[in-house]
Amino acid sequence: AVVGAAVIGAAVVGAAVVGAAVVGAAVVGAAVVGAAVVGAAVVGAAVVGATVVGAAVVGATVVGSAVVGAAVVGAAVLVAAVVGAAVIGATVVGAAVVGAAVVGAA
Description:
Layout: H1 2-105
């Protein structure tokens, strides 16, 4: 009976060791889950980072469009200035023609 009790005792100790192993496995499992959560956070941060970079690219494109727009407006102002100068030039020529007519009349 004592030997039998010792065998039962050994079985209980064995069960305790298995129980400890299960707890250990649960701790490892929790660590793996924790690592997965950290991994998901890193991936999430990378997605946010990519979104921010994407927004920066869009922002740069918008700024680029504004620069192109400003250049177009600038070109239009130059064209208007050239047209304006041509009108002034034509007026001067017109005045010279009038002047020549006056000289001719004289």
